[in-house]
Amino acid sequence: MIMTKPADHPKFPEEKIGVLLANLGTPDGTDYWSMRRYLGEFLSDKRVIDYPSWKWQPLLQLIILSKRPFSSGEAYRSIWNEELDESPLMTISRAQKEGIAADMAERFGDKVVVDLCMRYGNPSTKERVKALIEQGCRKILFFPLYPHYAGATSATANDQFFRVLMEEKWQPTVRIVPPYFDEPAYIDALAQSVERGFGAMEDAPDMLVCSYHGLPKRYHMEGDPYHCHCQKTTRLLQEKLGMDPEKITTTFQSQFGPEDWLRPYTVEHVAKLARDGKKRIAVIAPAFSADCIETLEEINEEIKESFEEAGGESFTYIPCLNDDPAHISALSGVIAENLKGWIG
After folding, report:
1. What CATH number corresponds to the domain at position 88?
2. 126 and 167: one domain?
3. Which pLDDT tens digit goes with each residue over 236-255?
4. pTM metric for this prediction
5. How far is residue 73's CA from residue 295's CA, in Å, rounded to a whole number?
6. Among 175, 172, 150, 199, which residue's Cα sits nearest to residue 45?
7. Per the CB 3.0–4.6 Å rule, which of 112, 159, 229, 331 could disulfide with 104?
């Protein structure tokens, strides 16, 4: 007997597979209230600041969020994409999504839908998960664009993804892309970017500084693997480039609050390098998949200033991999590997 659906049966679109790229986030604007909303969401995340709410929230709401939106807004204005009225992170992330979508279309036709969300701000994880489901994605591959795992980045993105799924009547089947800090194609893309950076310099640098986003040391001691992942990336990059191990170093930036963070601190270490006679340095930020406030403003302005004030003469910032073809190819390769068994 052939069964037919009743006339009032809900209609479902053709089944597809969704790939949801996720990055940290960006404020909608550089004005006080846009910055306050963004910083409030970010700094209220227990994965980022794990102090008890009774202790942290009064300090955050009454003091930090009264002052910091002004200084953060000024920093964002110095790098803002005025033409599109958005942060560079948003501009670059969109280009990455488009590059990966083109690659997926070439590999799998129209069976894979690629989308982009942010952990904080817009487009939100909730908005984009629902959009994928509405397009018929009964399987979703969630891809936090952090090469190195950390609770404050990868885990909180995953947390938010699963919180959104808790609201769905019919949950899709899902997978999470693991960290890719030691993927050969990612290391190759990093090495190529360093070689291009060195090639554009008049003289080879005395030191290559690999500056990673910082993390409280306590998190590392409690089992977060981020520090180990970063150290391995530096070692693999050094080996790929055939560099003298004494001419490449790992440092950490963006410290916040009174706790001791992973060391050495980039801003202090580059000044020490200058005082020790390393007058020419290049800095790369392997933990960031796209240039953002921490690279374009913090590294290329604050950290550069620290180096020059200590006597440094030549400071070169090597941009993030962004939408470089080698990076898009590496990310697409990771995605294709994680789609095995679903498609291809």
Report:
1. 3.40.50.1400
2. yes
3. 999 999 999 999 999 999 99
4. 0.94
5. 16
6. 150
7. 112
